[in-house]
Amino acid sequence: MTRTAGKRGSVPAGQKDYRSFSFWLETAGGEIIPRPPLGGPAEADVAILGAGFTGLWTAYYLLKRDPSLRVVVLEAETAGFGASGRNGAWCNAAFPVTPGELARRFGDEAARDLLLEMRGAVDEVGRVAEEEGIDAQFFRGGQLRIARGPAQLPGIEGSYESLRALGLDDGLELLDREETARRVRITGAEGALFSPNCATIHPARLARGLASTVERLGGEIFEGTPVTDFETGTNPRLVTEAGDVRARTVVLAGEAYLARLRKLRRQVLPIYSLIVLTEPLSEERWSTIGWEGRECVASSRYTVDYLSRTADGRILFGGRGAPYHYGSRIEDAYDRHEPTHEMLRRTAREWFPALENARFTHAWGGPLAMPRDWMPTMSYDPAEGVATARGYTGQGVATANLSGRTLSDLILGRDTHVTQLPTVNHRPRTWEPEPLRWLGARYVQQGLMRADDRAERTGEPPTGKTLAERLGKH
């Protein structure tokens, strides 16, 4: 039987079975017993909203660089509850904005610097996990972007050329049909672009290991403590029902869940991404599929798919398709959207006929945060006493590490290479008010699906000229 998220929207945080929210949380190691909540008003040097990757990396680097700091992290659920404990296991150097668009917006040099830092972030995640004894199952197998059908060949060729134009083609390989099949056998694969700048991880073990490391370094984490508001200016503080946490600096690191705060509701768009997972496959099945290199795999569809091979021999298949919910609502019940989950199972079997009679044991999902211009921000305003990093659009594992290093440097007044990147103090446009936001999001979601379906049906690449494609360009 497939294990699913079910309907849990009304269950209080302290009564939730957190292991049921994803395979990663289920296998993070033992029971997940929430830390005690905040007991009353408190003070700190830095108060952080969110015990996901962004908040935990920020706390980690702050404490490594200045152990005297009092750092307090407030988490509504439990460490790693959100995207940090439910993602596709990719630790990838790719960025939500494409290399060509980065160069257009910020110039070649700034684009190159940012993408090099993203490559370094992949290495840094592995380095810290090893140094701190975190069993994150870090494995650097690289990434294969598959052209599944002739319509997707121009996409991978264009990606290669845009990176080559920035001098970032080292290690990249354009593979033909036979070379692709020697790595992984996927029906309809006409070629692939290989990049070495990607690893797989066990995300929940990484997140929960980081939380324990932050505590060992002297940080405090209070779980089951939702932040209901925040104040900046002369008296920065995070507001909770248990009392305020006053600090010199507050850090807003809740990613999609920031949309629950009235002051930030139009800053990010919560979009749901869903995942299905097979049972461990037999040697016979793997001999048919190949995939010995355990690369992360995706195609060039607008509507996004992402695959990984787990350490215990399963196939994870994730993708978009679940609808945006009016008013940017986020509910645990939305983690499950059976039409999308069934589409993912069907698509996985289309890609890999060897899965025809294989069981899918898990299905889950969760929200990611999309900014209006697709560009993440890592900002700090010392006059207001507020820092934030957000808007990863599903590329958050390595980006959150870069955010943590950037915010810690900004808060500590360190002038470093990362504080000069174009992500720093970037201010995207706000999303439109409802109902325009709902109408626009649904229109783009459906329009991109139609563009993908048309390309697969005709064998011709998308034109890029439809309104949905233009609105979704990044």
UniProtKB/TrEMBL annotation:
Alphabetical list of Pfam families matching this protein: DAO (PF01266)
InterPro entries per the UniProt record, alphabetical: FAD-dep_OxRdtase, FAD/NAD-bd_sf
GO cellular component: cytoplasm
Domain FAD dependent oxidoreductase: 45-410
SUPFAM superfamilies, A to Z: FAD/NAD(P)-binding domain (SSF51905)
Chain positions covered by the region annotation Disordered: 451-474
PANTHER family assigned: FAD DEPENDENT OXIDOREDUCTASE DOMAIN-CONTAINING PROTEIN (PTHR13847:SF285), SARCOSINE DEHYDROGENASE-RELATED (PTHR13847)
Protein name, UniProt field: Glycine/D-amino acid oxidases (Deaminating)
Organism: uncultured Rubrobacteraceae bacterium
